[in-house]
Design brief:
Its EC number is 4.6.1.16. By secondary structure, the protein is α+β, with helices and mostly antiparallel strands. 34% of the residues lie in helices and 17% in strands. It has three domains: 102 residues, MutS, DNA mismatch repair protein, domain I (3-Layer(aba) Sandwich); 36 residues; 100 residues, Trna Endonuclease, Chain: A, domain 1, CATH 3.40.1350. Helix 2 crosses helix 7. The protein starts with 7 loop residues before the first strand and ends in a 6-residue tail after the last strand.
Length: 316
Amino acid sequence: MIDSERPIPLLVSNKKAYVWDVNDIANLRSRHHICGMLTGTLPHLSQQNVFLGVPLLLMPEEVVLLVEKGFACLVDDRNAHRDPSPALLSKWDSARLKAIKHQLALAEEEQDAKEQHTSPAMSEEAIRKRRERERKKSGATSTTDGLFSASSEQPDHNTPSSSQGDQGTAPGRSGLTGTYTVHVSASSSALEWYNQSAHSYTTLASAREAGIWDYPATADERARCSVFRDLWEKGYSMGGGIKFGGDYLVYPGDPLRYHSHFVASVIASPTTPLQPMEIVAHGRLGTGTKKSHLLCEWDEEDKNVTYYSIEWAGFG
């Protein structure tokens, strides 16, 4: 379930912000048209480079926008982690083993119930297996070292045996045969060694004082954040535009549904020089990729963005 009221935690590591929760990623995309970039590999697809998984890496402009709008908070992920004490680790391990033993006991009961309801042709085989389990249990309880072990009786050399033993038999449950999947849920004690709330920052100023975030720090970075915010407020979705010679790709909606209409380049101020060759290059590249190139000029004094669209026209 997506919680739209809670500020989305952005885990900051080395001045980069990540999102690990898939519900938060869905919330960012569906409610705030913030896409970011998935950077993790997917299970069983470790060699692929087309479809990626969590975590979601956000552009600095996206982080600034989300924090300023109150949609997210910054978390010092490094200091939020604390080394657990030996007592806490022992407590967690005991709870984990208890959960495993409980699931194995349920599996054994289910297996016994199935054997009791087998057809008459299989009843003798079920009885033989049950007696074999009881024999192994009695042998395992006779050991004195307190560890799980097999029967202490000598093997019968007249019967075939496996050198590797029964790989499907769980420790301490000699009666189980085959392979079983054991589900171990995350322990609530994990919260005791990861304190996120104590290292969260809801403003850029507080995060800058803590030393985990310093963007924007220059006039160019402030211009980029302002242009990104203006395009976002107009309803566009943005992605990285370095492949197309700009700062952003500008989409009219979700990038999974639409192609980008513009490639945007940020001009830090009205007095920033612009070479004619840059205009020619942007126009030719935009035409070749079926996009218009936007020159986004930020005026720090007027707090206003002026847009100029470049495209080839009037030939032939």
